[in-house]
Amino acid sequence: MIQRKQGLGWSDVDFDTQDITLLPTLDTPKTKKPYYQQWYLCWNIHVPLLLGAWLLLFTLGELGASRYAVHSCSWANIDQHEHRLVVIADPQLTDYYSYGMARGSWTLALTEFYSDLFMRRNFQQITRMHTPPDSVLVLGDIFDGGRILDAEAHTKHRDRFNWIFDTGRQSIQFYNMTGNHDVGIREWYSDEAAKKFQEQFGPSQYTVVLGHVELVVIDTIAMLSSNSTVRDAALEFVKTYGSMKSKHNYPRLLFTHIPLYRPNQGATCGPSRHSPIKQGQGVSYQNVIPKQTTDFILAMIEPAHVFRCIFLVLDALCEKSE
Ligand SMILES: *[C@@H]1O[C@H](CO)[C@@H](O)[C@H](O)[C@H]1NC(C)=O
Ligand SMILES: *[C@@H]1O[C@H](CO)[C@@H](O)[C@H](O)[C@H]1NC(C)=O
């Protein structure tokens, strides 16, 4: 045991031999100890115990948490013939734009690798579910700095995407969407980035029937573009395809990267979200689309549910609302 004698400095601390075997550098207790050694002694830390606890926490965090999260989810409909769709929001692959790291630096390479590994591991849990999904919809913001990536970086990022979302032996169809981090927003909308994105991830707006529902994916980023050609094409899609209901008149699910308009007061976001969505915008984002555009979309598409994406400080949430 360590005893601290009343009124005396640390140089007068008595040591038990057991402690000394643990900390061999402390065999001359009569001399003044550097601060860290004093701190060490003060708490009497048992190193093997600490290592054991760390290892346990590490394993739980690295393997247990994702496993637990995925396995605590269950499909709403267990009918094997129903289509199962997983919606993934904002993977936002880390790049040199994310934290201002130099291109080609090892710090960037490590950051990219570990963030990719984290997502891959979580996705692997989804592919290994007892009944895996039939398809996956990525709700946009696949890239972080997509607006400024060159063609080479684009291809490299697509390869990273394919590695993270490796479906293994399962055949899972991917559906993609454009986000503000992929192509830029309003006056920062990059026509070039949008083209490159579509070459690698498919169209930015489409409809598809999966099971007994029709998915309508709209391009709200293009709708907010300051380029009127881009804007008109996105609105035209809503007008044209909105009026064309699927053959069986299936209920429609609307998917939008930017949430639809909501008033700042009195609009709740349901129990899964702790703070309401507030109107607001910045260089690379906008929280909601204008009321007029929202009314137009809802009148044309008449969705049964709306899925939208909203980026929080560290967390990406996707929500379903009536
Ligand atoms: C979505 O992107 C992935 C990766 O590039 C691609 O394999 C898939 O075909 C795309 N989906 C569509 C519907 O184009
Ligand atoms: C607007 O978008 C169209 C279609 O993508 C493109 O051809 C045109 O160059 C763009 N205009 C500007 C000013 O960027």
Automatic annotation (TrEMBL):
The chain crosses the membrane at residues 40-60. InterPro entries: Calcineurin-like_PHP, Metallo-depent_PP-like, PGAP5/Cdc1/Ted1. Gene3D superfamilies: 3.60.21.10. GO terms for molecular function: hydrolase activity. Residues 85-276 form the Calcineurin-like phosphoesterase domain. The keyword rRNA processing does not apply. It is found in: Membrane. Keywords: Membrane, Transmembrane, Transmembrane helix. It comes from the Eukaryota. One of its GO terms (cellular component) is membrane. Its main location: membrane. It holds the Pfam family Metallophos. One of its GO terms (biological process) is GPI anchor biosynthetic process. It is a multi-pass membrane protein. This is Calcineurin-like phosphoesterase domain-containing protein. It comes from Thraustotheca clavata.
